[in-house]
Amino acid sequence: MTPQRFDELRANTLAGGDLLSVGDVAECLDEIARLAAMVYMPGVYHCPKCGFVVHKLIVNANTGNVMMRRHCDDVCPNDNTPLEPSTWEMDSRKMASVMPELAQLRREKRERGEHGVAVY
Ligand SMILES: [Zn+2]
Fold this sequence. Notes:
By secondary structure, this protein is α+β, with helices and mostly antiparallel strands. The protein has one domain. It contains 3 helices and 5 strands; from the N terminus they run H-H-E-E-E-E-E-H. It has a 3-stranded antiparallel beta sheet with strand order 2-1-5. The longest helix is centred in the last third of the chain and has 24 residues, at 88-111. The radius of gyration is 22 Å and the shape is elongated. The site of zinc ion (ZN) has 8 residues, from loops.
């Protein structure tokens, strides 16, 4: 399904137009799954209450392959809140929020003469 077709079906539905056919619904679900795969970080889950983050990886000992779990039923070890999938945007904002602190740590190390220490 193209994004334009998705937008047409969405606009038609919101305007109270014709009901979607089973095929249209199936196409929409496929499109939603495709978009969700681009939004969520594979295997990364967080607690919406305290910010705890966990990476859920599956390592195959025989092949050495690493796979990510698609679903997580775990709860936060801090407050028992169900964990939710983390998005790329959340990760980007979190990294941006800690950059000033990292830059300060780097300045302090430089002032102490601790060269060659990467703080990124
Ligand atoms: Zn928590």
